[in-house]
Write a structure and sequence with these properties.
single chain, mainly beta, 332 residues, 1% helix, four-stranded antiparallel β-sheet
Length: 332
Amino acid sequence: LGSDGNFRTTQLLSTSHVIAATPSGRHILIEGSGCKGGEAFGAYLCDVQTGQGSGLLPQHVRRGVTLSDDASHLAFHTNRDGVVPFDNNGRYDVFGYEFASGRIRALNVGPEGWLGDAAAYLVETTNTRAYFISSASDLLPGAEGTLLYASDRATGRLSVESVDSTGAAVPILAAAAARGGAALAYRLATGEWVHRSLADSRIVPLLGEGDAAAASRLTLASDGASAFYQTRAADEHQAWKVVPGGAPVRINRDEANQAFPFLSEMVPSANGRYVALQEDTPAGSLYRVVDTTNGATRYALVDALSVLSVGNDGRTLLVRGIDSTLLRLVAP
């Protein structure tokens, strides 16, 4: 592993499938039996430093899952019925799960206590909120169109978060949320993406009509200060980074501004400076870790099925090796 062969490598776990990970890489959800406390095959929350597992999670927690940064809870969406007693609509609904209590509760619930009258899809989970998109008409009074909602973890209270500068709800096409809880991004019905700071509710352009035309979805860095997305032109995947109010910068380029073949996966560090990009090479795919401030390649990884997290220093990575082992890599 590593283009210079000087990585310090620690094998953490052996697992068949990683469901989700915190941005720091400290905690992961796995499907397997690699954690202590995981006596039977199933889904577990694992502390990768200690290898200690949480015990078996509910069977519904497998797909469409996001994990809070502090690993205290998760949210997921599913179209399976019976997750909670009144869940029998056959639609996608959003649920929260608390690790300490083992409690599951529905999140897309209106004031009458019933699940919304349209499907809901999870966007992201922070330490205090879960964000989801729904076109339900009965979640909040006056709700119209497809909106971004937040469910407060402590109170269960719903709020509309796709709003304009006056605070009025606006319909959207897609949304993203920073896992650190600092910002949101949403794509307006007109096609443009905007960035909303949750510290001061300031809304600024993120991608204009021309740039946004090819960006159906994007990912916010955990700190909310930058966004990442990909486009496809002439059978070529392109990776991009943009900051609020700035111009998009193509990031699958090296220090000499030469493009390298990019496949589809990108994993930014929490501060957005570094990103792991899946690169297509004659020998197969590898991951290149790039400094987005100058295009410098920190290193390239081979024999990795996926990169789960990139440290803010660009040196520490959590990766899944080709033999399904979970590895922590520390570069020189």
